[in-house]
Amino acid sequence: MLEVDCSVLTPEIVFKTSGHVDRFADWMCKDPKFGDILRADHFVEEILEARLKGNKKARGQKVDEEEDGKKKKKKIKGAQEAVPLSKEVVKEYEEVLAKIDNYSGPELGELIRKYDLRHPKSDMQPTEPVAFNLMFGTKIGPSSNLAGYLRPETAQGQFMNFAKLLEFNQGAMPFASASVGKSYRNEISPRAGLLRVREFLMAEIEHFVDPESGKKHARFHEVEDVELDLLDRHTQLSGQTTITKMTIGKAVKDGIVDNETLGYFLARIYLFLKKIGVDMRKVRFRQHMANEMTDKPLLVRQRLETPRTVSEWEVTIERKKFGPWFKKDSKAVEAVILSSTQECREKWAKELEDSGKAIIEVPGLGNVDVNKDLLQVEYRSRTEHVRDYTPNVIEPSFGIGRILYALCEHAYWWREGGDEARSVLSFPPAIAPTKVIIMPLSSNKDFIPHVTRLSQKLRAAQISTRVDDSSASIGKRYSRNDELGTSLGLTVDFQTLKDGTITLRERDTTRQVRADTDTILTAIREIVGGSKTWEDIEKELPVFESQDVEDQ
């Protein structure tokens, strides 16, 4: 995998070619009374969700705590009223919500009118949705003649450098490139938080494969038994959100996931999220709808070890006569001819031979007669020494802020008893900002050399460490470091002065073990490195229970 660091500022022609100038947009509407700018799909989604919750309240049904919690984050305040709905209407709303990502602007406008969706602030329907391009535009250079944009994703830089990357990889396929950097999107209504922002850090991989290779992956066998929660395109189109749970091996075999390479990356994403501490019960893999896909054409030229003979129908256009004959329509007719299939060309060849003219269907012009003095279609054979093809691309894309947001939300909890002051962030040791907190039991000066020595050894092992020698009780110090996500705690006490042993405390269980300094430091390296778990350490080292470290 080749790492690429590309420019943030990109000329307009790049995004014009990729389709971003014309298609990289969200649908926007406006409150006609107060002028509030709304993202149309979010507006429809939030109003319908609020009506469904209002229906539950009107019927005395319990609104799930998690579902009700989302209400506090609503962008549209006052949208929820306790109004009963019929079963048919509830079903309609649920089907719309299941397909909310697949509606176009006109379709969203139709939904607003059909269900009389009004902004609670003005009690009026918003304006008709219009496309709003999400790229930040700018002018490049002192003359301001060259238009440009801040990149909305890191992919374009990788595609622009494709030829060089292929050359660096000695022309061999498959290969991959990766890029980590800032991207910019002019979001309609980002609000607070990390889920939707205008400037964000993202990481993308572009894995290029030969479409004729079957898209096999050499390491697929390593992940084929990983089980994923899948939401496929057909389920979404039916208005459902039913999750299908299956191994990635079976998903590829049954055609739910297209190929091994795509399946490999899906499984690796799952394993990565699981490793950093994301609650995988709250993760699903949703297949993109057809209108969410993008096209990024590239070209690879492969030298063939054995030349091959290709026989096919080829067209020859007499351009000197063709242009004057069709005049302004010549480009449209020529485009259809050059992009035609072998079946069409064979049919035209027969028509030219039988009647002297071919009947060609041109969009916007209907059937067009092309005489044989303007067009020739012949069946020819040629020897090819190279093969030109457009590679397929697998593009794993990660919003770093969103991953961190989900991780913090999934890792946060508080200890039983309802005391919110004893909250915990259960980061895995591998990603915890601080791995170890060192705490002397008191301000006794005799503890200082031991604390300093421990800190130096941990830093030498490249394990992030902090020292908390404040005057607070040991329990309060543990509690506030639990809230910061610190995985392990070392306590230097009076027993340390006698025999050199120290205690090691685990954040989530609050249990401790005690051993000599070198043994404890080895245990820390093994836990942080992932070779052992806390359960393994508890089995190996003596449990320490004589001191109550919690502040009761």
Automatic annotation (TrEMBL):
Gene Ontology terms for molecular function: ATP binding; glycine-tRNA ligase activity
A GO BP term here is: mitochondrial glycyl-tRNA aminoacylation
Q: What is its main location?
A: cytoplasm
Q: Which Pfam families match?
A: HGTP_anticodon
- SUPFAM superfamilies from the UniProt entry: Class II aaRS ABD-related, Class II aaRS and biotin synthetases
| Class of the enzyme per the UniProt entry, highest EC level | ligase
Q: Which domain of life is it from?
A: Eukaryota
What is the designated name of this protein? glycine--tRNA ligase
